[in-house]
Amino acid sequence: MSDLNHSPDQKDQLDLVYGLNDRPKPFIAFLAAFQHLLAIIVPIVTPGLLICLALGVSKEDTNMILSMSLVISGIATFLQCKKVGPFGAGLLIVQGTSFNFIGPIIGIGSAMVAAGTPVESVMAAIFGVVIAGSFIEMGVSQILPWVKKLITPLVTGIVVLLIGLTLIKEGLISMGGGYQAMGDKTFANADNLIMSCTVLALIIILNRIRVTWVKSSAILIALVVGYILAGFMGHLNFDGLKDAPLVQIPTPMHFGLSFSWSLFIPMAFIYIVTSLEAIGDITATSKLSNQAVDGPKWMERIKGGVLVNGANSFLAGIFNTFPSSVFAQNNGVIQLTGVASRYVGIWIAVLLILLGLFPSVAGIIQAVPQAVLGGAVMVMFGAVAASGINILSGVHLDRRALLIIAISLALGLGVAQVPQILEHLPELFRNIFSSGVATGGITALLLNIILPETKK
Predict the structure, then answer these.
(1) pLDDT tens digits, one per residue of 3-57
(2) What sign does the CA torsion over 150, 154, 155, 157 have?
(3) From the centroid of its chain, how far is CA 245?
(4) For the whole prediction, is pTM greater than 0.85?
(5) For this UniProt entry, which segments traverse the membrane (predicted)?
């Protein structure tokens, strides 16, 4: 291992326009921050919007949840960039609402709604679990070396792959128009398919254009075009703006708080995996910023970054939104622009908080038809699965590893597709294995411990 107090080797360093502690002039900092904003604003609000649509949350409450997702993401981004005591990595890191938790929240939340639980009570249980789970991530930040030994890249890759694969069903439902379209018999009609396929095709085309800002903003540009198309087709609904206040005042525990063990078990496991994902993202940002990627300074950044992951998820639960995590998107923007200044991150944080405090922003986003959103989320969910494959590609795939992958994917996807297999199990086991991600992840973890590694 290299001396941790030194920068990476000269040959590995990027030629940065602005280094980690450089202070660009305000106008340049704003432009750089705006480019990051184009790449992240859609992924930040999408998880909350999908969950609210699936569970039938009122438009007013959805507006509040989306606004708070922007505010909480801004607070986390500020902490990551500024570094306040033990909180934060001190790098240009953007944090936002995590896609990892969508599957279990929609799956178990929908089951609670179907069983007759009022939506407000379901949301109270969800946010209670978000708060409880955040302590797991904060705890993990203090014992990272031990957790990394137990949950290896093989286990992490399988879980991330399962998250992506189980979300694809939700993506297809969105492309067809969502659960509401299923109810009113308009699911997958010509209008919905035209809107969703147009957005999907545009994202593919824009990603092939060799212009930096176009590539990094491909999803946002495609959604704007889809939004305009939906307007021409008469599918924009601005009901969410009607009763929206001029300024959104953060309201702690708007739905109250309760708890659900059936949701907590899969969420707890995903909190751990999200922590390990953050290690990879923070390390990548550190390398792109020409900072150390091993040793004490690197470990301090990792611990601070994962601690903010957990602490901000705690804040998210208190202020009625969903868990957040380090985003990988900003690493691509840093690499393309050569701007790694953490002071740009503070500009990003301020812009996110300002956008979140004005509900009209969330109302305009909420007006987008779910079919338009579906074309984008299919790419996002596929990217999550591809990220899992990328993690597994760095693992030595011998017979043992392939066996663990095969069994974990089979059981995880099997439970997701045929949940009736758990009907006659005791309630405790139904709660534990009701999520395909939890089933596959626990299987991977146990097999990784039980099956001896082949000596090289």
Answers:
(1) 334 445 554 566 788 888 899 999 888 988 888 887 788 889 999 999 999 999 9
(2) positive
(3) 27
(4) no
(5) 27-56, 91-115, 121-138, 150-168, 188-206, 218-238, 258-279, 344-365, 371-389, 401-422, 428-451
Query: Residue 162 has which token pair?
Result: 């399962």
The kind and range of the H/E element at 96 are strand 95-97
Query: Nearest Cα to 299, choosing from 309, 313, 286?
Result: 286
Token pair for 205: 């085309």
DSSP state of 99: G
Structure tokens at 259: 């708890």
Q: Give dist(CA 382, CA 179) in Å, integer.
A: 20
Share of the chain above pLDDT 70, in %: 96
Q: Is the pLDDT of residue 373 over 70?
A: yes
**Is 363 in contact with 244 (CB distance < 8 Å)?**
yes
How far apart, in Å, are the Cα atoms of 61 and each of 123, 129, 148, 258?
A: 10, 19, 39, 18
Q: What are phi and psi of 324, to 5 degrees?
A: -115, 165
pLDDT at res. 129: 95
Q: Specify the long-range contacts of residues 185-193, CB closer than 8 Å, at least 24 apart.
A: 191/233, 191/235, 191/371, 192/369, 192/371, 192/374, 193/371
Query: What pLDDT, in 10s, does the model give residues 295-342?
Result: 889 889 999 999 999 999 999 999 999 999 998 877 878 877 788 899
Long-range contacts of 5-11 (CB under 8 A, 24+ apart): 5/292, 5/295, 5/296, 5/297, 6/292, 7/290, 7/291, 7/292, 8/287, 8/290, 8/291, 8/292, 8/293
Please give the pLDDT value at position 261: 86
Query: What is the greatest pairwise CA distance in the chain?
Result: 66
Which alpha helices (H) appear in 319-435, and where do they start and end?
Answer: 329-337, 342-357, 359-366, 370-393, 399-417, 427-433
Kindly report the three-state secondary structure assignment for every residue of 417-443.
Answer: HCHHHHCCCCHHHHHHHCCHHHHHHHH
Contacts of 30 (CB under 8 A, 6+ apart): 347
Of 12-21, 145-154, 274-283, least confident by mean pLDDT is 12-21
Nearest alpha-carbon partner for 387 in 265, 286, 300, 278: 278
**95 pairs with which residues across the strands?**
326
Token pair of 321, please?
């939104």
- Cα 204 from Cα 8, distance rounded (Å): 35
Dihedral in degrees, nearest 10, Cα atoms 34, 39, 41, 47: -170
Domain boundaries, the chain: 14-450
Q: Pull the structure tokens for residue 194.
A: 């035209």
